[in-house]
C-alpha cells in the first residue's frame, strides 16, 4: 500500500501547477496522514491546487505550492516586518501588509508588565513574530520568541526598509544563504532583516553600502544564483 | 458550408492571443489580455479589510469596476460588471479570507468585439497573479450565430454587428490530474463538462445553442492550453529567480 501510493502522487511534484489541478486522491491512502501547506485544499477526496506555482513535496508527508505574490497573508510562526500605525491601551496596531491590521499586545515583550510598556510611535519599524492568524480575527503578533526571550525581535532603528514580493523574501531567507547576501557579506559589513511579508530592512555604517545592498537585492529577484554572484561581484568592484 | 469572414479566418479560428502578467507596478496582481485588436488590462487590489455594505461579512467580497475606453460608464458597463462579478465569485474560494474585499479593475484598451470574454480571461489571469485562491481557472469565448445559421467564434466588432445572436460562454479550464484518464471520479469529469457562465443576446433555437456550446468548448481547450503555458512560463521565470 505504502509503495503504490507514494509513487503515484510524485507525478506532479516539482511541476508547475495552476489552480484546479488535482495532485492527490486521498481515498487511495487510508492510513496515512498528509500535511497541506499554502496553495492547496481538500475537495472531498481530492487535493486540488488553488494558486499557480511550483508544487513541492517534503518527506515524509508535506505538500505545498511555492508561489510569489505582492500581498501577504499571515500565517502562524512567520517572522515579519511591521510598521506601527497606532497604539491603544492594550495593543499596538501594526501594518504587516496583510488584509487586516495586526495586534501587538503591549505585554508581548520580554519581561513585559503594565509598568514598562515600551513607547512605540506611529511609523516605527518592528521585527515581529505572528502568533495567531485566524482568518476571522485580526492576526496577533509578539516581540518574543516561543520561550519569552526577546531574541532578535523588536524595533529596528535607522537603516532603510523597502518592499518586495513574498517570493523574493523567501529566497533571501532560504538556506544555504542566498548568493547575493553571501557575496556582499564577504566584503561589506551590514545588517539585514527580512520579513516573510515582503519587507526587507538593511542597515550599515555608510549610506552607500545600504544603497548598493538594497538595489542588488531588488535586482536579484529575476536572476539565477550564478547571475546573482556576478552581479554582486561587479557591484563590489565599483564600490571599492 | 463555409462562410466568409472579413479577415479571412475560418469560422472556428481565433484571433492571435497575447497575455502578460504583472505589468502594473502598484497593483497586487495585474494582467493584460488581447485577442486580435481587442485588448483589456485587469488589475487586482486586495484582499483588503472589511466588506462593503449589504455583503456577507462571513465570506470574501469581490468588487468589479469596469472602466470603458472613453467616456463615463453607463448601463452596459454596469451589466458587464455584474456578469464578471458573478463569474469570478464562482471560481474564487470565498471562505478562505472572510470579511475582506478584493477589487478587480478592468480597463478596456481597445474594443474590437468579444470584449466581455476578453475581460473574463484577463481578470482570471490577474487573480492568479495576485495569488487569490481559486477553485479552478475560467476561460471564456464568444460564439456568434450568423443569419445563415453558421456558428463563428471570437467575432470582431464588425462581425458582431451583423450577427443574429451571440453567446458569451465561460468554461472551467482543462485541469492536470494525477488520476488516470477516464477514471471513475465523477468530480473531475463534471468539471470538464461544466459551464460557468452563459450570456446570450438575440434569439436562437435550442439546437443552435447546444451547437454553440460544443464549438465553444472545443475552442476553449486551446485557450486553456494557452493560459496554462502562459502562466507556467511566467512562473518559471520566477522559479529560476528562486533557484
CATH architecture of the largest domain in chain A: 2-Layer Sandwich
Structural class of chain A: alpha+beta
Biggest β-sheet strands, sense, barrel of chain B? 5 strands, mixed
Helix content of chain B: 25-40%
Number of domains of chain A: 3
What is the mean predicted local confidence, pLDDT of chain B? Answer: 86
Which of globular, elongated, flat, extended, rod-shaped describes the shape of chain A?
Answer: flat
Q: Fill in the CATH topology of chain B.
A: Ribosomal Protein S5, domain 2
CATH superfamily of the largest domain in chain A: K Homology domain, type 1
User: Span from first to last CA of chain B?
Assistant: 53 Å
Strand content range of chain B: 25-35%
Q: CATH class of the largest domain in chain A, please?
A: Alpha Beta
Domain K Homology (chain A): 159-207
Protein name (chain A): Ribosomal RNA-processing protein 40
GO molecular function, one term (chain A): RNA binding
InterPro entries (chain A): Exosome_RNA_bind1/RRP40/RRP4, KH_dom_type_1, KH_dom_type_1_sf, NA-bd_OB-fold, RRP40_KH-I, Rrp40_N_euk, Rrp40_S1
Characterise the protein shown here:
The complex is a heterodimer of chains A (240) and B (243). With 240 residues, chain A is an alpha+beta fold. Chain A folds into three domains: 2-66, RNA polymerase II/Efflux pump adaptor protein, barrel-sandwich hybrid domain (OB fold (Dihydrolipoamide Acetyltransferase, E2P)); 79-155, Nucleic acid-binding proteins (OB fold (Dihydrolipoamide Acetyltransferase, E2P), Beta Barrel), CATH 2.40.50.140; 160-239, Ribosomal Protein S8, Chain: A, domain 1, CATH 3.30.1370. Chain A is 21% helix and 31% strand. Chain A is built from five helices and 16 strands. Chain A has helices at residues 2-7, 166-173, 179-187, 207-219, 225-239; strands at residues 16-17, 22-25, 35-36, 40-43, 46-49, 53-58, 62-66, 79-87, 91-95, 102-105, 125-132, 140-142, 154-155, 160-163, 190-195, 199-204. In chain A, the strands form four sheets. In chain A, strands 8, 9, 10, 11, 12 and 13 form a six-stranded antiparallel sheet that branches. In chain A, helix 3 runs parallel beside helix 5 (225-239) and helix 4 runs antiparallel to helix 5. The longest helix of chain A has 15 residues, at 225-239. Chain A is flat, with a radius of gyration of 21 Å. The termini of chain A are far apart. The relative contact order of chain A is 0.11. Chain B is of the alpha+beta class and 243 residues long. Chain B has one domain (17-242): GHMP Kinase, N-terminal domain (Ribosomal Protein S5, domain 2), CATH 3.30.230.70. Chain B contains five helices and nine strands. Chain B has helices at 75-91, 115-130, 157-162, 186-193, 206-242, and strands spanning 17-21, 29-35, 38-49, 61-67, 100-110, 138-145, 151-153, 165-172, 197-201. Chain B has a five-stranded mixed sheet. Chain B has a four-stranded antiparallel sheet with strand order 7-6-8-9, sandwiched between helices. In chain B, strand 2 and strand 3 form a beta hairpin. In chain B, helix 1 (75-91) packs across helix 2 (115-130). Chain B is globular, with a radius of gyration of 18 Å. The model of chain B is unreliable at 237-243 (pLDDT under 50). Chains A and B meet through strand 1, strand 2 and helix 2 of A and strand 3, helix 2, helix 4 and helix 5 of B.
